[in-house]
Amino acid sequence: QLQASGGGLVQSGGSLRLSCTVSGSIFPLNVMGWYRQAPGKQRDLVAGISSGGSTSYVDSVKGRFTISRDNTTNTLYLQMSSLKLEDTAVYYCRYRDVKDYWGRGTLVTVSS
């Protein structure tokens, strides 16, 4: 199971940190990521991180968002800074090894 938290309402230019904890057993080799879905749009990858710590970001968040993980607590983070109106979306965490799990979304609303 994945449990995401940390969403909320923030002004443009502000910051938020999302967290997602994986419960249960996990495989040593896995990939975790954050996705987002804005109203009327498809769900897209925002950032990903491997169990070894390799990261990737969509161009629109590079330099503003940082993905990280704590393998001792099986927790995934997304530090979001310099938030823009277009970052408003429901954010989902995802965990993949031989299986594929999605967490419930957490809403991030950026206001002007």
Structure summarized in a few sentences:
With 112 residues, this protein is an all-beta fold. The protein has strands at 2-5, 8-11, 16-22, 31-37, 43-50, 55-57, 65-70, 75-80, 89-96, 100-102, 106-111.
Question: What is the fold's blueprint, element by element?
Answer:
Blueprint: E1 2-5, E2 8-11, E3 16-22, E4 31-37, E5 43-50, E6 55-57, E7 65-70, E8 75-80, E9 89-96, E10 100-102, E11 106-111
Parallel strand pairs: 2-11
Antiparallel strand pairs: 1-3, 3-8, 4-5, 4-9, 5-6, 7-8, 9-10, 9-11
Q: Could you please describe the fold and organization of this structure?
A:
By secondary structure, the chain is mainly β. 0% of the residues lie in helices and 55% in strands. The protein has no helices and 11 strands. The protein has strands at residues 2-5, 8-11, 16-22, 31-37, 43-50, 55-57, 65-70, 75-80, 89-96, 100-102, 106-111. Strand 9 (89-96) and strand 10 form a beta hairpin. The chain is globular, with a radius of gyration of 13 Å.
